[in-house]
Amino acid sequence: MFDLSAINFIDDTSRKNNYSFVGLQHNAKSGKIDFYLPIGFEEFPRDSFEATKELFLGLYKIFKKFQKNKIKNRDGNINAQGGFEFQSEDNETIVLYSKINMFDTILDEFDEMEIYAFDVKRTSSDYIDFGKLDRHIDRAWFLEDDIIYLDDMEIQKDVLAFTTAELIEMFCYIYTDIKKALDDDEDIAEHIISLGTNFKEKHLTYDSSLFDEDSFEITRDILKERLDIIDKKSRLKDSVYDKYYEAIYTFLYDNPFFEGDDDIYWGIDNFAFVWEELCQSYVFKHYKNDVLYADYEEEANLTLNDHTRMYTKKADKESYPFKVTYGDEVKYLYPDLVSDNVLTLTKNKYMGNYKLLIKKKNWEKYEKKLIRFYKTNWQFGYGCIDKSNIAISSKDSKDDYFNQVSRDNDYEALRSFIRIIDYKYKIKSDIDKKDKIKQKFYELAYGKDKVIENKFILPTYKNNDLLVYECKELDNGFCMEYWNMKILFEEYLDD
Asked: Model's pTM, two decimal places?
């Protein structure tokens, strides 16, 4: 068990190596725990215990789900150190250490039927078997009127059952507290909750929790004290006792992380793969109909070679455009996302929940280029309308953007365009020529007669409910957006 308030944060500005690592790592020099934040988390509120707890628990659940998806798709295996390994497209080995001793030794050892069976056995042992009174006659008190009195405390009891009972109650308390922290307590059986509540009422206070800033330390200390008392009182210890004692002891005392190859840590050594899945999951959850092609195993319906499966709207290998042919040999290309869109505008209004977004000071720049439109509920898209067909209004806009569209004639304009997206787990300055050349290859492969936008999506953190930030034009027809990982985390886990 470790104190979330004592974590040392490492972000883009302070990390030297481990550029792509996200997770917790033991710092041998300081003796503290370093929390390597994802790229773009400069605005994360580090002084907030609740925000730190939410991020830590969120990443724990995200890593678990990510690993589960990989296993489901038969894309990886568990290594000797307990880490999950999978291969990148460049045959790079990526390792995810998603297990944490402080959680998994409790969650993995939980056996509802075993606990229930033991509790039934314990409850029934409180009753005296009057058919066996003769076996206790030597410890009886003989009173007047031929009354025999047996003091309950003098009847031989199973000391193991007494100590193991409290041990199991403590285990159930820790288990329910962890499940509550993970927002996964809806299906906990009533008798498990009752056993945990028994322990809490005997030894803790109403608001005690292992995940509360004010009560964490004293709760942990009381649990350690009670575990020590239980162990000293236990004269007999069977496999049930040993199982739950070891789980609780590991939770309270052992290093909270499993060992990796280089150091003791928890996390993933290349968060870019998680970043891509977060983005793809959001797109397919809300806008699957807009997707033409996607490098996303969860929705894949077309196998292009022995290793890569893509989602395509037509599920037709012959019509798949992203490929290069050398004689009989075909080299397939795998863009992250390719989407289609249709924009319809009529006089004096905009339709389909679209929003025009044009910087006032840069209007001339857009004279013969694409005009950017964004859906108000997601802010995603471009229009293909030129300046001669658009009049701009809404001069009272509070920001630097116009937010209304009117036309100077009565006819509708209908335009379609293609968007090729690359989810980049980078900061803006690290987007290089190689990244842009790759996008241009996708553009050329798709066809010269198409209106195509190349876009990079980069990570950021904002403590609000907006997804898209800082839509910027880059050189040579590229553009860039930042997506808020706070929203992506929430959406990924809300299935």
From this structure: 0.75
